[in-house]
Design brief:
Elements: H1 7-20, H2 22-28, H3 35-48, H4 50-54, H5 57-70, E1 81-88, E2 93-100, H6 102-111, E3 115-124, E4 128-134, E5 138-144, E6 154-163, E7 168-174, H7 175-183, H8 192-195, H9 197-209, H10 217-230, H11 236-242, H12 268-281
Antiparallel strand pairs: 1-2, 3-6, 4-5, 6-7
Length: 294
Amino acid sequence: MSTALTTRDKLVHLNDFLEKKRGSLVSVAPEGADVDRIIRTAMFEASKNERLVQCSPTSVYMALAKACELDLVAGGALHRASLVPMWNKSKKTYDAELWIEYTGLMELVLRSGDVSHFTAEVVYEKDEFECSFDLDGGKKLHHKQFFDGDPGPLRLAYAVAHFKNGGHQVEVMRRDQINKIRKSSRNPDSGPWAQHTEEMWRKTVVRRICKYLPLSPKTKAVVEHDIASDFTEPNVIDATFESDVIEPDNTVASENVIEVQQPKRKSKRTTKVKDLVERAQANDLPEPEEDFTS
């Protein structure tokens, strides 16, 4: 007789586990946050996602604790954040992580109080787009979307934040810049980057513009956490400023692990031989300590 838990059994176990942790979730949530709604929405999302059910209840709880702390509902109609099952290679199982959507980041920025309006858009190949700058008016954008058929591949992404004092901040990113950041992601060819590419382009430019916005310490910590959870190198968003080199878009599907090719080190044997040759040419050759010819 099989003792394996069914999906329904796992859902019941997860719900019981979260109910026992409800008090802890309430303690980390800001006053007025609807913790019960956050739990209910998480259970509804789990019922639709078999891999999320396979995640350890502890990882789901930790992800929801972050959601409660930020007062963000993971799932639902507004879709400010999501619970994403991530494969843990060391444990050989799935762990749930809180994935903050670009709309969630924008909402947190608006909560900071200095930004009155925030938008993020993508530009397709057939769209009309112009970005200009002058000393009097600053950076100006003109974007006319193409609606008569296929607009072509994605070309640019931009974000605009309007401040309550009347100013604004504009950020535009090219395809090569975004693809460079995508390649540094933990999962560049699966998950959100593959299934929700347009949203990830928006999220990338939102992350970039946040560097220049007046953020509360809490919102700044959230942005840093979001970047660290997506990339093996937490400073990858900053790195694109330092090296803005245009690269061809030749992303190839591969494993979800980025392999870094380390330069080959010269063996000690080769180094010693080269050193002896140089010293011999300088008439400074000692008696050999080793036989390098064998």
